[in-house]
Write a structure and sequence with these properties.
It comes from Lentzea guizhouensis. This is PBP domain-containing protein. Keywords: Membrane, Signal, Transmembrane, Transmembrane helix. The protein has 592 residues and is α/β, with parallel strands linked by helices. It has four domains: 6-54, no CATH class; 61-307, no CATH class; 318-390 and 541-591, 3-Layer(aba) Sandwich (D-Maltodextrin-Binding Protein, domain 2); 392-540, D-Maltodextrin-Binding Protein, domain 2. The protein contains 18 helices and 21 strands. The chain has helices at residues 6-23, 29-46, 60-66, 76-102, 107-134, 214-220, 283-301, 328-341, 354-363, 409-416, 443-452, 483-491, 502-506, 521-526, 528-534, 556-563, 567-575, 584-591, and strands at 136-147, 158-160, 163-165, 168-177, 188-195, 200-210, 232-234, 245-253, 260-265, 268-271, 318-323, 346-350, 369-373, 385-399, 406-407, 434-438, 476-480, 496-501, 511-516, 539-546, 579-580. The strands form four sheets. Strands 11, 12, 13, 14, 15, 16, 17, 18, 19, 20 and 21 form an eleven-stranded mixed β-sheet that branches. The protein has a five-stranded mixed β-sheet with strand order 6-8-4-1-10. A three-stranded antiparallel β-sheet has the order 7-5-9, with no helix packed on it. The chain is elongated. It starts with 5 loop residues before the first helix and ends with a helix.
Length: 592
């Protein structure tokens, strides 16, 4: 109850004014006085237990039932897991794209810069998203504010309680929870109200709600204040779930002057715009993908080279590489890196085997052609010049279904010479061994024969690598033209065995490289140069051959050969488990 003493009431009103001015500095004197009067009325009503007896507010469960059905979405942990997987995959793909696009020139800083920028932006996006998700957002948009319009020569005459109204206007406003958080009754710091200065209320109707019965519930709430003759409508502090909405239609005496939306929300805001949700449940995912791809593009195209080889020579021309299929993946990576460092230079790759490449170069000498070979050129190619590139470790490969991890040198010789033909002599399984060999143009095959002592004149006995051409043949031996073909054949046949460079074998999930005499991938990784020198014989030196004209200054061949001797090119070779001949510990092997 308010005090009866006028002086006490005056002091209370003064204190209320001071509090309101400090809490809401944007309020003018008229608004402050209005809030003071409203506070006094609420205090007076609170002292009368029967003040609201005539109107019983609807229970909260009824309002909840009237709210729109919330759209089902994946649970937050599941969305987070999916987003993490997708973003991680996108980050990996973009890193590969940058590396392929920019080669080694941005590897040190560009890739890590991409990762750091993507992570930082992802954190920022997630933080902003969480803030937006937790913000309460109530839209009160005045969609119509106009006088009644009629045809020329006619007029409108309304009446209110028998009093004619000749200057009638109408306001239509839509109230909607456009946020993702539910708005509770106690979230209204000050009530949502519509103020129309200079005009007077005639009537108010709540209509067109979503769902339909919400309008009736809002109209029945006791704190809806719509008194004819006043210049303000105060809407009730109604509980609204996301997407719940209703429309108010207000008839006024007087037109023009506009309508002001007033009110405050706790941890949120009231807007007069048709505000959409600024973020949805998958906003971080789309934003993260956008950040990753934009950052990747900037890294690939705008970041200046940070590890460009000193004195790199660039020549605008076209160069062809042919020969060894074992070195094909590495050669493609090196060619792409050089093209990135030297725009306008084109290095094309076509590998059909070491001997085929040497024959092509020898039969048609061309300063714009280089041949890769993992076997030393025979005497008939003596006119060609060579540069040692790297030592390539090879391995015997088998399908992962075979329960075997090691072979002796004697077993390898007998298998690929066609004398050991059944798995029962190795693993105990009674099934023919399907040997997948390379053709006679292959440098890898020449290495197997020369370094391990495999029979050199053995012919193929099968086309499909599973059955012999002649029923009487005991050995099943087929030939393939490239390393990739050998890996593919072994990967699809659990009884097959073949050979390839170790890097290619490790790239297949269905193929396993076997140790020879208990020396395998683990031992080779530990100290490859010493192991190859002392304990492992299945390896070769990759060389690149050229004609005398290719050494001429100003040719793309000479510039590319010089690039192959740089530390950046050596790092690419190491990624494929090859040992660059520029390393001091490997130089002896390359010269042997």
């Amino acid at each position: 109850m308010l005090p009866e003493d006028p002086a006490a009431r005056s002091r209370l009103r003064k204190a209320s004014r001071e509090l309101l001015r400090k809490a809401y500095p944007e309020y003018d004197d008229e608004q402050v006085e209005r809030e003071v009067e409203a506070a006094e009325k609420r205090v007076e009503l609170s002292g009368d237990p029967g003040a609201f007896a005539a109107v019983t507010p609807p229970p909260g469960t009824l309002i909840d039932d009237a709210a729109p059905v919330e759209r089902k979405a994946w649970s937050r942990p599941l969305r987070a897991a999916v987003a993490t997987v997708v973003l991680a995959g996108a980050l990996v793909l973009m890193a590969l794209f940058v590396e392929q696009t920019a080669g080694t020139s941005v590897r040190a800083q560009g890739i890590w810069g991409l990762v750091a920028a993507a992570v930082a932006c992802a954190v920022l996006v997630y933080t902003t998203h969480q803030h937006a998700q937790q913000e309460r957002l109530l839209s009160c948009r005045v969609r119509i504010d106009a006088p009644f319009s009629v045809d020329r020569g006619r007029h409108v005459s309304l009446d209110s309680d028998g009093i004619p109204i000749t200057d009638a206007g109408i306001i239509v406003a839509r109230v909607k929870n456009t946020g993702r958080e539910r708005i509770e009754s106690d979230d209204y710091v000050t009530p949502l109200s519509l103020h129309f200065p200079g005009r007077r209320l005639v009537s108010l109707d709540v209509t067109e709600s979503e769902p339909q019965n919400l309008a009736t519930l809002v109209a029945d709430l006791p704190d809806l204040r719509a008194v004819p003759g006043e210049d303000r409508v105060t809407l009730p502090a109604v509980r609204l779930k996301p997407d719940a909405s209703f429309k108010v239609v207000i008839v006024l005496q007087g037109s023009g002057g506009g309508a002001k939306v007033e009110g405050r929300l706790r941890d949120g805001r009231i807007t007069t715009q048709e505000t959409k949700r600024r973020t949805g449940p998958y906003t971080p995912l789309w934003a993260g993908l956008t950040v990753i791809f934009l950052t990747g593009a900037l890294t690939a195209f705008l970041l200046p080279p940070v590890d460009r080889p000193a004195n790199l020579a660039c020549v605008r021309d076209t160069l062809a590489l042919s020969g060894s299929t074992a070195f094909a993946s590495t050669a493609a990576k090196l060619a792409g890196a050089y093209e990135t460092l030297c725009p306008g230079s084109v290095v094309r790759l076509s590998t059909r085997g070491s001997l085929a490449g040497l024959q092509q170069l020898n039969s048609a000498p061309d300063e714009r052609l280089l041949a890769l070979s993992d076997v030393k050129a025979p005497p008939e190619f003596a006119s060609l010049r060579s540069t040692d590139l790297a030592v390539i470790p090879f391995a015997v490969v088998a399908h992962k279904a075979r329960k075997i991890s090691n072979l002796t040198t004697h077993q390898v010789i007998n298998i690929f010479s066609g004398r050991l033909t059944n798995w029962k002599d190795i693993t105990g399984e009674d099934h023919p061994i399907h040997v997948v060999a390379r053709n006679t143009d292959s440098g890898t095959r020449k290495t197997l024969e020369a370094r391990l002592g495999v029979q050199a004149d053995l012919s193929a006995t099968s086309e499909n690598c599973r059955e012999p051409r002649q029923p009487g043949d005991s050995a099943v031996i087929c030939e393939r033209t490239s390393t990739a073909d050998v890996i593919a054949a072994v990967a699809t046949d659990e009884y097959a065995i073949g050979y390839s460079d170790i890097a290619s074998a490790l790239q297949s999930s269905s193929v396993q490289p076997l140790a020879i005499d208990n020396v395998g991938v683990a031992e080779l990784t530990a100290d490859t140069a010493d192991v190859l020198r002392l304990r492992y014989r299945f390896w070769a030196v990759e060389r690149i051959y050229r004609t005398a004209g290719a050494d001429a200054a100003g040719t793309l061949a000479a510039a590319f050969l010089e690039y192959l001797r740089t530390d950046e090119a050596a790092e690419v070779m190491r990624q494929f488990r090859y040992l660059p001949c520029t390393d001091a510990k490997v130089a002896e092997l390359c010269a042997g």
